[in-house]
Design goal:
The complex is a heterotrimer of chains A (272), B (302) and C (345). With 272 residues, chain A is mainly alpha-helical. Helices cover 78% and strands 0% of the residues of chain A. The longest helix of chain A has 34 residues. Classes of the chains: A mainly alpha (272), B mainly alpha (302), C alpha+beta (345).
């Protein structure tokens, strides 16, 4: 293996990698912004200020906040429970928590219709009591909850597993109760992993399309989230408006990626 | 004196010593406090949001009798949709395989200038909403898109054909492969490679005989994850697929269409089948992975 | 604060294997005892049980004569120092030390000024007065060890439990901290239980040694008793280098299998047995056997090291006693100082 051949093979491999990243990942990203700015920055912004677009942004923000809060709390409880104790059925519980990742988003929407839809188990009861979950905001929240279910636990668990139980036991022996141990010892230590998980949940919640599409009913201005609004605009040949909204979502996604990289670097740097 | 700031002395409370009664023992077996609370929250959270709806999914098709299930299963359109979903997902995952290994290798070993940007880019397909991916790829590979025009010169049509589906799924599946292979490559001891080099292995032999077997289990689970994800993918595919029945109609789309026709049991049957396919693939892959890694450990012991 | 365990038994989680098997132990108020034994003997399990970290057990655990359920454990005023110190990584040294005070219920909590005064006192005590704002990862091993101790001491425990506290320290720091810990124990009137696998450390620091093997207590005595009257060959072997000589007792005399070892009178009855002896207790008796010295060296620690060849085998003997035998001189081995354990062949 001569140095010259090595550098040639290295050159070829790196070149291939650049090509893959450029063609597969960066080109679509560039296209989003080109299409959005086709008629100038001003037009792009004004499409985002249309009433339906604003309603979609508001709804997405609302759903995302609720979903992130619920799944973060549940995720912390599950991560604590699964890493600090040993009990029968632990692996099964982990499997259940990770299950939503492999469920098609369409199914994630469908299951809520089976429970709360007109034809569903409790549909009639809900109608009788004048409540609506399917094809309304609660349904969207439920579908998004299912889709973003495992992310906090999944990022938090490996980190907490690696930390062990010593710090918690020490805190407990020093007289701390459960809440004090959680807030002052465990979570501050795992904060970067937690933030990374929350961010991932948020990103997926903002962008969920398939599941929400099934349960939402597509009423513009009422039950349309940002991704659904993009679909409506795109199918209505309002390309600039669709891509402006897409660019907004892509910006969110990009900042998520950058922030997560920063967080993960910080928790990898901590000595264990 | 420093040790006298405490005025309080705690009285010892005295519960009966060593008492164990059955239901309590489960809750009291743990020294750290908070087990009943966190376990309860976890069960409630998992039960309401995952288990309950999935029970509904599994039970629902039987409510209208087995006849409707069989009818759905015999529908050639359903079978065709499954074939499209399955083959496209497989193609995409297989095509992603070398790309995933290449990118992981580049990121871990070669680290060319700008590899941090590449690392960040790998996560993009995971973070970008599927609908955005969908309309972007449809425009990019569409008749008037940058790539579409380019490929049209070569006589290739991507958008609105199964090839379009594969392209979209490749985009979606790539991060799964890179992200599972990367840590294994990172933890691969360089001594082993150096030993192979000193024993006279050519770079190709080194890769093929030493590195590939080591990263195979991880590659396989990355492949499984990507495949399971691709088989259920909806948002990024429907815009580029064209959705012609029997040709480029995917199974998840068929679920949506059945729902729009209010054929709940039909939709649910397809959904259960789709979910089962994904789960069986995942289980198969993890089984294979176990076998493979066990083989590796055995070799190490020898 | 005294600790009493009565027929204390603990099982490995999910199996019927006993980690601790019928432990009976009393630690008087103000005692300094060391739990010693090879790894896997159950030392740490026993310490964790006393600390209240093992909720499921059979038998009784009494603190100051009172049975204690594990739920009110923090109120027992126990200080525990973990093997890897378990310092809170995201907190400064001062916050680590004051943690036990910060988490007290408001009505029992000393005010801020008292807490910081106390932290400063403890920092002075552990001789790290300037490191209040340092983070645990900026400290050396010995410093971390002392911070862990200060953290355990902040709540004024009466009982101090230490799990291999010197494990990760270099020999010099080890010795200093060992001495310092003993002084601290005496100054504060603590009851201290220390887990270690190093018998020399235990002999050096503790009043009493509890030797454990396979989840049982083999012997519980002070250093002199252990040396003079070890209960089992294991205790003897664990406490220092031991030579074994197989042989037979006939008519109240021990007849070794090795012909170059001299017989000696014993009180035990006839039968096969083994004599266990410290190398330094072996004496060379000139002209009574065919043993001779193959090589001899003087170790830097002042001990002499002889390699002795008898007709049957080669022995390594390290002893502070110098012998005048020349390398080619023949002699016999006198092992009459050795011990015979009944039922051990």
């Amino acid at each position: 293996m001569t140095p010259a051949r090595f550098s040639i093979s290295r050159f070829i491999l790196c070149g291939c990698s650049y090509a893959v990243v450029l063609l597969m990942l960066l080109l679509p990203l560039v296209l989003i912004f080109t299409e959005a700015l086709r008629q100038g920055l001003h037009t792009a912004f004004s499409t985002l200020l249309e009433p339906d677009a604003l309603a979609a942004i508001r709804l997405t923000a609302f759903v995302t906040i609720i979903v992130t809060v619920i799944n973060t709390l549940g995720g912390i409880a599950a991560a604590w429970c699964l890493t600090k104790y040993s009990f029968v059925g632990k692996r099964f519980l982990i499997m259940l928590i990770e299950l939503p990742i492999s469920v098609s988003p369409v199914i994630a929407g469908l299951i809520w219709l089976l429970l709360f839809g007109q034809e569903g188990w409790w549909g009639n009861w809900l109608t009788a009591h004048n409540m609506q979950i399917a094809f309304a905001v609660p349904g969207i929240v439920l579908a998004t909850l299912f889709v973003t279910f495992p992310y906090v636990t999944r990022t938090l668990m490996p980190y907490m597993e690696q930390q062990g139980r010593d710090a918690e036991e020490a805190a407990f022996l020093l007289g701390a109760n459960f809440w004090q141990t959680l807030w002052q010892v465990t979570l501050p230590d795992a904060r970067w992993a937690l933030l990374s998980g929350i961010l991932l949940t948020t990103a997926r919640a903002i962008g969920e399309f398939g599941a929400v599409s099934v349960v939402s009913g597509h009423i513009p201005g009422v039950t349309e989230t940002m991704p659904l609004h993009i679909e409506t605009l795109y199918n209505g040949y309002q390309t600039v408006a669709a891509f402006s909204m897409a660019a907004l979502l892509a910006l969110c996604a990009m900042s998520t990626v950058v922030l997560r990289t920063l967080f993960e670097n910080s928790f990898r740097k901590q000595p264990s | 004196m420093a040790y006298s700031i405490f005025k309080t002395n705690y009285a010892y409370s005295m519960p009966p010593d060593g008492f164990i009664c059955l239901p309590m023992s489960f809750l009291r077996r743990h020294t750290l406090p908070g087990f009943p609370l966190t376990f309860g929250i976890t069960l409630l959270w998992v039960g309401l949001l995952v288990v309950l709806p999935l029970i509904a999914l599994v039970v629902r098709p039987w409510q209208d009798g087995t006849a409707t299930i069989l009818q759905t299963l015999h529908d050639t359109r359903v079978l065709a949709a499954f074939r499209v979903s399955f083959s496209c997902a497989l193609c995409a995952a297989l095509l992603d395989l070398p790309l995933g290994i290449l990118l992981a290798w580049t990121l871990v070993r070669l680290q060319p200038p700008g590899y941090r940007i590449i690392t960040a880019c790998i996560d993009l397909p995971f973070a970008i909403p599927t609908a955005v991916t969908g309309i972007t790829l449809a425009t990019l590979y569409g008749p008037n898109g940058w790539m579409g025009k380019l490929l049209a010169h070569a006589g290739l049509q991507i958008a609105f054909t199964p090839a379009g589906i594969v392209i979209a799924l490749m985009f979606v599946g790539l991060p799964f492969l890179v992200r599972t292979i990367e840590p294994v490559l990172q933890n691969f001891p360089s001594e082993v490679e150096e030993a192979a080099f000193l024993l006279g292995a050519t770079p190709f032999q080194k890769f093929y005989r030493v590195i590939l077997p080591a990263i195979l289990p991880a590659t396989l689970s990355g492949f499984g994850l990507a495949f399971a994800r691709c088989i259920g993918e909806y948002g990024s595919v429907i815009f580029i697929a064209g959705n012609q029945p029997f040709r480029s109609e995917i199974a998840p789309l068929l679920i949506v269409m059945r729902l729009q026709e209010f054929d709940y049991s039909g939709a649910t049957t397809i959904a259960v089948l789709l979910l089962l396919t994904a789960l069986i693939c995942l289980a198969g892959v993890s089984f294979l992975r176990l076998r493979l890694s066990r083989g590796l450990i055995m070799e190490e012991v020898k | 604060m005294s600790v009493t365990l009565q027929s204390f038994t603990q099982y490995a989680p999910g199996s019927s294997r006993k980690i601790l098997d019928n432990i009976n132990l009393t630690v008087e108020d103000g005692a300094f005892i060391a739990l010693v034994g090879p790894s896997g003997a159950g030392k740490t399990s026993l310490l964790r049980a006393i600390g209240g970290l093992s909720p499921v057990y059979e038998g009784h655990l009494l603190i100051d004569g009172l049975p204690i359920g594990h739920s009110d454990l923090p109120k027992r005023k126990t200080g525990f120092v973990f093997q890897n110190y378990a310092l809170f990584r995201h907190m400064s040294v001062a916050r680590n030390i004051s943690f036990g005070l910060d988490v007290l219920p408001r009505k029992h909590r000393p005010d801020r000024a008292d807490i910081s005064a106390r932290v400063q006192d403890l920092l002075d005590l552990i001789q790290l007065p300037h490191l209040a704002h340092a983070r645990p990862d900026q400290l050396s091993g010995g410093q971390r060890q002392r911070v862990a101790l200060a953290r355990a001491l902040a709540t004024e425990p009466k009982l101090l439990l230490l799990d291999e506290p010197f494990g990760a320290l270099d020999p010099i720091v080890r010795r200093t901290i060992r001495r310092w810990l003993r002084e601290l124990h005496d100054k504060l009137g603590l009851t201290t239980i220390l887990v270690t696998h190093d018998h020399e450390e235990a002999l050096d620091i503790a009043d009493r040694l509890v030797v454990m093997q396979d989840g049982r207590i083999v012997q519980d005595a002070d250093a002199n008793t252990l040396n003079a009257y070890p209960q089992t060959p294991f205790v003897m072997q664990f406490l220092g280098e031991t030579l074994e000589f197989a042989g037979e007792i006939q008519n109240k005399h021990f007849i070794p299998e090795d012909t170059d070892v001299l017989p000696f009178p014993v009180t035990e009855n006839n039968g096969k047995t083994t004599v266990f002896i410290r190398p330094s207790e072996v004496r060379f008796v000139a002209h009574k056997g065919a043993a001779h010295i193959l090589s001899q060296t003087r170790n830097p620690n002042g001990l002499y090291h002889y390699t002795v060849k008898t007709t049957q085998r080669t022995l390594d003997i390290t002893t502070p006693v110098i012998t005048e035998h020349a390398e080619d001189e023949k002699f016999g081995l006198d092992i009459s100082q050795g011990k015979i354990f009944p039922n051990i062949r």
